[in-house]
Task: inverse folding
């Protein structure tokens, strides 16, 4: 899958291990890099959802096109579907099998 960034500064941060370590610490930076590698290797969001260590969860409400992935407790990597249009099922849910593009939103504690 492809992951994009809204700002050049975010892309620069996530493509530089030393900057990631300075901002998030060694353990969390390693988990961020691992999640990004898993996203890159997955053919679709459905494949990523099958990785138990990712603990992929869809958010709700006005964030229903966003998903969170585990990092280092309590932090989660938040991404949103970047396919245009967003692939939908007949019941208007997101068709995870057809999602091939994500965009970085934030790293946060969602609890």
Result:
């Amino acid at each position: 899958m492809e992951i994009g960034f809204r700002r050049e500064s975010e892309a620069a941060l996530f493509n530089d291990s030393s900057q990631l370590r300075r901002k998030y610490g060694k353990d969390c930076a390693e988990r961020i890099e691992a999640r990004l590698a898993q996203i890159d290797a997955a053919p679709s969001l459905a494949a990523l959802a099958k990785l138990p260590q990712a603990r992929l969860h869809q958010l709700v409400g006005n964030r229903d096109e966003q998903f969170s992935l585990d990092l280092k407790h309590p932090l989660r990597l938040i991404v949103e579907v970047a396919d245009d249009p967003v692939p939908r099922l007949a019941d208007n849910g997101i068709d995870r099998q057809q999602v091939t593009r994500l965009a970085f939103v934030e790293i946060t504690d969602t609890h």
In short: Residues 2-109 form a domain with the YaeB-like fold fold (CATH 3.30.2310.20). The two ends are 27 Å apart (CA to CA).
